[in-house]
From TrEMBL, chain A:
Catalytic reaction annotation: L-glutamyl-tRNA(Gln) + L-glutamine + ATP + H2O = L-glutaminyl-tRNA(Gln) + L-glutamate + ADP + phosphate + H(+); L-aspartyl-tRNA(Asn) + L-glutamine + ATP + H2O = L-asparaginyl-tRNA(Asn) + L-glutamate + ADP + phosphate + 2 H(+)
EC primary class: ligase
Coiled-coil residue spans: none
Encoding gene per record: gatC
General function of this protein: Allows the formation of correctly charged Asn-tRNA(Asn) or Gln-tRNA(Gln) through the transamidation of misacylated Asp-tRNA(Asn) or Glu-tRNA(Gln) in organisms which lack either or both of asparaginyl-tRNA or glutaminyl-tRNA synthetases. The reaction takes place in the presence of glutamine and ATP through an activated phospho-Asp-tRNA(Asn) or phospho-Glu-tRNA(Gln).
Complex formation: Heterotrimer of A, B and C subunits.
EC number(s) given by UniProt: 6.3.5.-
Entry keyword annotation includes ATP-binding: yes
Protein name in UniProt: Aspartyl/glutamyl-tRNA(Asn/Gln) amidotransferase subunit C
PANTHER family: GLUTAMYL-TRNA(GLN) AMIDOTRANSFERASE SUBUNIT C, MITOCHONDRIAL (PTHR15004)
Family classification: Belongs to the GatC family.
Keywords: ATP-binding, Ligase, Nucleotide-binding, Protein biosynthesis
Domain of life: Bacteria
UniProtKB/TrEMBL annotation, chain B:
Subunit structure: Heterotrimer of A, B and C subunits.
Chain ranges of the Amidase domain: 25-474
Alphabetical list of HAMAP family matching this protein: GatA
Keyword Hydrolase: no
Catalytic residues as annotated in Swiss-Prot or TrEMBL: 80, 155, 179
Database matches in PROSITE patterns: AMIDASES (PS00571)
Gene name of the encoded protein: gatA
Organism: Amnibacterium soli
Listed name of the protein: Glutamyl-tRNA(Gln) amidotransferase subunit A
Family, similarity comment: Belongs to the amidase family. GatA subfamily.
Coiled-coil region(s): none
UniProt-listed Enzyme Commission number(s): 6.3.5.7
Lineage: Bacteria, Bacillati, Actinomycetota, Actinomycetes, Micrococcales
Length: 103, 518
């Protein structure tokens, strides 16, 4: 039986890892491509019963949006917010360069 | 003095109230037990000895002054490392959060503290709760107290093992696809996944937001109910938290135990989860439990849930999709690991930090989720999975028209050997076949022990499921089943677990990735 699902290639995994912001070694990418094909081949089973007449459910219990008055609530202090940061300076998160040399 | 670690939380509460046991004594006994068995079990990632004893002393003073904040004041508790604690590291089993101490407590933790429970420490788990064995913890696997060469279940294997090994009477867990119920099943303990939204998730490190639910882990149905009553109820900090007023789960459990609850109740055996293809001893104990329930007056009916067979596929699309989004917060800027080789951009630093900070299962699921959500595939995968979710919900609705509670074995097998499935993601995923439908539909589920499989002498669990918001029904029925079985056994199942803390053969088998840490 022909396999209808698109095969996830090494290049696809490389691209997805880029989107997910995870650096990967070439060997890891190759291994993952194999595993992902096995998993996707199994989970695509959902398509068998997902006919157009079935609505999608995003949330198990129906909920409505929650609003509150626009007043300061229980919030963390600036010091608390920065307490776990790898680097902070002058009350702010300090980050590496935003733009590379090419940009 | 009898061994204080053998008391249930309810029993300890009675002794504390009577004044013949102090919280300091109870806390010290559990810390001693932790020191004795942790080298073998490795249920904890962090033990908070000094702070726990200080808090226990404070609670003893409050009680002496007549100001005990609740009947459970002074009872020790263990907390799954997925929950934020302002005085203990909270890593969710990941290197990317190693050593991170959050600036606030998760609401369930805050409520336990306010009720006077004494946190003993943080329990081990699969990284970000992705797994069914704790083998994906970045800090080494937990070992099943029934057989140290086997898995304690997952992701909450640490909490289940901690209560099974008498390191704590009760614990907190979280259940996204079975992470409370499956560990309960394989360790001979009790675990409850409440109705979605029944317990606040504020401060619970998110895995899949439409599935995650925090709940109790214990050795008895009543203890789970007591903890549920403390942690449950609306929390304005969690927009998905239900505003319902809940009945007392402890009251339901007490009535279920003393009055019985099975006469005339319709117990639905889910045809698709009735045990065909499951381990023989699991099927046998499940059949016997049904027999006991029928003898106690329950009407056993078979119900069909034709779309449950698609649930696991839908789950392994929805979960990775939501996880890939939730885990985007680990950006090496606001908290957690930063790997900066210098002269790198923020984006490169983020990618390098996530490479080093995430384990293989997390990378697998984040990339799978990114794939399922990407343009061109969204409708085929994530969209279809959400449609299956509707079909699973409809199956539950139809089944609950024919039955008051639904039952199945909690897991297809007893505890499997450490290392057996760690390199086969799909085999690991199939382990969740029984527990996933409840998460997709948001309904509450409980696992409680129903005996040992004859072929391996390991615990088997019964899963009970009730309609959304009917958590009390689980406690009422669960407590009756527990009482019936204990009357037959003459003692709780855990009394048959092997002794720990004696010279035991080394776990070996090369199954512990990095030797484990205390």
């Amino acid at each position: 039986m022909p396999d209808a699902s698109p095969v996830i290639t090494v290049a696809d995994v490389q691209h997805l890892a880029g989107l997910a912001r995870i650096a990967l070694e070439p060997a890891e990418i190759e291994h993952l491509a194999g595993e992902l094909n096995v998993i996707v081949d199994s989970v695509k089973k959902v398509q068998e019963v997902a006919t157009p007449d079935v609505p999608a459910t995003s949330h198990p219990i129906p909920l409505v949006n929650v609003l509150r008055p626009d007043v300061v609530g229980e919030v963390l202090t600036q010091e608390q917010v920065l307490s776990g940061a790898p680097d902070a300076f002058d009350g702010r998160f300090r980050v590496p360069a935003i733009l590379g040399e090419e940009q | 003095m009898s061994d204080l670690t053998r008391f249930t939380a309810a029993e300890l509460a009675e002794h504390l109230a009577a004044g013949d046991v102090s919280s300091v004594e109870a806390t010290r006994a559990h810390l001693d037990r932790i020191a004795e068995v942790e080298p073998d079990v490795h249920a904890f990632l962090h033990v908070s000895g000094e702070a726990a004893l200080r808090r226990a002393a404070e609670l003893d003073r409050l009680r002496a002054a007549g100001e005990a904040p609740s009947p459970l004041a002074g009872v020790p508790v263990a907390i799954k490392d997925v929950l934020c604690t302002s005085d203990m590291p909270s890593t969710a089993g990941s290197r990317i959060l190693e050593g991170w101490v959050p600036p606030y407590d998760a609401t369930p933790v805050a409520r336990l503290r306010a009720a006077g429970l004494v946190p003993l420490g943080k329990t081990n788990m699969d990284e970000f709760a992705m797994g069914s064995s704790t083998e994906y913890s970045a800090y080494g696997a937990t070992h099943n107290p029934w057989d140290l060469t086997r898995i304690p279940g997952g992701s909450g294997g640490g909490s289940a093992a901690a209560v099974a090994a008498y390191e704590s009477p009760v614990a907190l867990g979280s259940d996204t696809g079975g992470s409370i119920r499956q560990p309960a099943a394989v360790t001979g303990t009790v675990g409850v996944k409440p109705t979605y939204g029944g317990v606040s998730r504020y401060g619970s490190i998110a895995l899949a937001s439409s599935l995650d639910q925090v709940g109790p882990v214990s050795r008895t149905v009543l203890d789970a109910a007591l903890i549920h009553d403390v942690i449950g109820g609306h929390d304005p900090h969690d927009a998905t938290s239900l505003t319902d007023t809940w009945p007392s789960m402890a009251e339901a459990a007490r009535r279920g135990r003393t009055e019985g609850s099975l006469a005339g109740i319709r117990v639905g055996v889910v045809h698709e989860l009735n045990g065909s293809g499951f381990q023989a001893g699991v099927r046998q104990r499940f059949g016997e439990a049904l027999q006991r329930m029928a003898e106690a007056g329950a009407e056993i009916v078979e119900v069909a849930a034709p779309h449950f067979e698609y649930a696991i596929s839908a789950y392994y699309l929805i979960l990775p999709a939501e996880a890939s989004s939730n885990l985007a917060k680990y950006d090496a800027i606001r908290f957690g690991l930063r790997v900066d080789p210098g002269r790198s951009t923020t984006e490169q630093v983020m990618a390098l930090s996530r490479e080093q900070g995430f384990g293989p299962e997390v990378k697998r699921r984040v990339i799978l989720g990114t794939y399922a959500l990407s343009a061109g595939y969204y409708d085929a995968y994530y969209g279809s999975a959400q449609q299956v979710r509707t079909l699973v919900q409809r199956d539950f609705t139809a089944a609950f028209e024919q039955a008051d509670v639904l039952v199945s074995p909690s897991a297809p097998t007893t505890a499997f050997p450490l290392g057996e499935k760690v390199d086969d993601p799909l085999a690991m995923y199939l382990n969740d076949v029984t527990t996933i439908p409840a998460n997709l539909a948001g309904v509450p589920g409980m696992s409680l022990p129903i005996g040992l499989a004859p072929e391996d002498g390991l615990p088997v669990g019964l899963q009970l499921m009730a309609p959304a918001r009917e958590d009390a029904r689980l406690y009422r029925v669960g407590a009756t089943v527990e009482a019936l079985l204990e009357a037959e056994w003459g003692a709780p199942l855990l009394s048959r677990a092997p002794k720990l803390g004696r010279p035991v053969p080394a776990p070996g088998f090369g199954t512990e990735p990095d030797g484990g840490t205390l």
